[in-house]
Amino acid sequence: MSKKHTGKLTFLGTGTSQGVPVITCECGVCSSSDFKDQRLRSSVLIQLQNTNFAIDAGPDFRQQMLRAKVKQLDAILLTHQHKDHIAGLDDVRAFNYQRNKDFPIYCTLAVETALKREFYYAFEPKPISGVPRFNIQHIDKGIFHVDENPIEAIEVWHHRMPVMGFRIGDLAYITDAKTIDKDQKLKLKGLDTLVINALHEYKHSSHMNRQEALELIEELQPRKAYLTHISHLFGKHQEIGTKLPKNVFVAFDGLELSFEYSC
Ligand SMILES: [Zn+2]
Ligand SMILES: [Zn+2]
């Protein structure tokens, strides 16, 4: 018998690949004093009954773990191999030492290939001490489990690169999407909460802009939606909010949401 539970999502980062503020930029967003305009690279922490995992581990991973005071992390799910989503993996060492075991990383074969290149020293047959130790679990579109929890991987397109989105119960987290095929959209029906990337107002080859994200939300009809992977070019947090329908919100670092799931 599966039982219903309430899970928690915490936004660890909601910024695009350079984060906000952008180094050297003096625009109004990058110099804003509103804490909601300070965005680390996009990542979330998912807390289930007995299992905590992060989706992505970008360059700000260490800072994000410290800021959210994460003491228990059981796995990391990777959406794709771009640096703003994997660069922080060296710091899983803290969790290697805490538990004296290899750290579970859920990713596709293509992402693993990139990890073997980017973190070659962790994959050597006899790695020297002090390197991160990964326990790679392969995923593909479809259902997989983290501990006993079923999670559905949804394949989306980042220009021509496949990226995994994840559905956990009535919540789905999708980042770095430009388009989603029809068969994958079917997995996003009946959502309470959709988290979706929206870079800014302008057209972009590999990211949805505001209009494209709103069209997807209109099509999928989740009860509510949150925009993430935000560029400084999108404007200040407060301004973006005024251009959205009533059930669509801009995510910000530290925002927490709850959702229902069963296992
Ligand atoms: Zn990204
Ligand atoms: Zn990307």
Structure notes:
- The chain is of the alpha/beta class and 263 residues long.
- It has a single domain (8-31, 38-252), classed as Ribonuclease Z/Hydroxyacylglutathione hydrolase-like (Metallo-beta-lactamase, Chain A, 4-Layer Sandwich).
- The protein contains seven helices and 14 strands.
- A seven-stranded mixed beta sheet has the order 6-5-4-3-2-1-14. A seven-stranded mixed beta sheet has the order 7-8-9-10-11-12-13.
- The longest helix is centred in the last third of the chain and has 11 residues, at 210-220.
- It is globular, with a radius of gyration of 18 Å.
- The mean pLDDT is 97.
- The structure holds zinc ion (ZN) (2 copies).
- One zinc ion binds next to loops.
Quick take:
The chain is of the alpha/beta class.
Break the fold down into its secondary structure elements and pairings.
Blueprint: E1 4-13, E2 43-47, E3 52-55, H1 61-67, E4 75-77, H2 83-86, H3 93-99, E5 103-107, H4 109-118, E6 134-138, E7 142-146, E8 149-158, E9 161-168, E10 171-174, H5 182-185, E11 193-197, H6 210-220, E12 224-228, H7 237-241, E13 248-250, E14 256-262
Parallel strand pairs: 3-4, 4-5, 5-6, 10-11, 11-12, 12-13
Antiparallel strand pairs: 1-2, 1-14, 2-3, 7-8, 8-9, 9-10
The number of domains is 1
Highest-level CATH class:
Alpha Beta
CATH architecture: 4-Layer Sandwich
CATH topology annotation: Metallo-beta-lactamase, Chain A
Spatial gap, N to C terminus: 8 Å
Q: Structural class, please?
A: alpha/beta
**SS field, number of helical segments:** 7
Q: Spell out the helices and strands N to C.
A: EEEHEHHEHEEEEEHEHEHEE
CATH superfamily: Ribonuclease Z/Hydroxyacylglutathione hydrolase-like
The largest sheet is:
7 strands, mixed
Shape verdict:
globular
Mean pLDDT: 97
The gyration radius over C-alpha positions equals 18 Å
